[in-house]
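Input for the complex:
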Amino acid sequence: MKRHTRQGEVILSAIKTAGRPLTPLEIHELASKKIPRLGVATTYRHIKTLSESHQVVGVDYPGQPPRYEWADGQDKVHFACRACDKLFALEDTMEDTPPAKAPKGFKVQGFEVMLYGMCPECG
Amino acid sequence: MKRHTRQGEVILSAIKTAGRPLTPLEIHELASKKIPRLGVATTYRHIKTLSESHQVVGVDYPGQPPRYEWADGQDKVHFACRACDKLFALEDTMEDTPPAKAPKGFKVQGFEVMLYGMCPECG
DNA sequence: GTCGTTGCAAAGCGTTTGCAGCCTA
DNA sequence: TAGGCTGCAAACGCTTTGCAACGAC
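Predicted:
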């Protein structure tokens, strides 16, 4: 049985309006502006729940803390800047078909593409 | 000034011959079979060094510990099984050109593709 | 009033660091 | 022999868990 709370509302909204993947601590900081006494554990608990219900998805890239972003249903393309380590969400840059075929026996259900390089600011 | 040691040799060989991305602990376990008193710290130190010299590359996917694999120069496609959580390295499944274009200002230097689904064993 | 949710603090875990002894070049 | 490398244990930072108080329904 799930209940509606102000904490859950604020945390979800922080992720939803960010426009880019956020770390748990970034999410907690943002949400703390509206709920000063918000605990980290609560943030983590909501991220976990939202993640399990597929409302948010995790985006990882090597050597960096995990990040989470709003799952709007479509497969995304991400861009990781090797200089400043920021992560960007790119949109409308590719079709809906996986860019690679898997060998016989593998059932492909989804995919993700990560581009590496220099962002406009660092390039 | 870098020196050649048995530990470094064994650790590198473990990654090189695995054929799939390994977690630091898997690497440590494999290497420990040849050097029983091998410390975890040594394993981590070598992974870090190899990673910085681009001899091995990190492969992450959400909710899983980081993994490392031998970098043979070509961009790879990985397959993550949602059932057993194993990670596979697929080969020769796509061209060398990035599957997506980045907006003006972004300089693309490399890319990675991750497919999600069911592996032959779990499907 | 019930029972899921919260904040806090402690525990857990993977990774890193300090250090004295070891070993390669 | 010099100085990098190693094993061990302590330290660290992020995440999870235990628990009593709180608040949604």
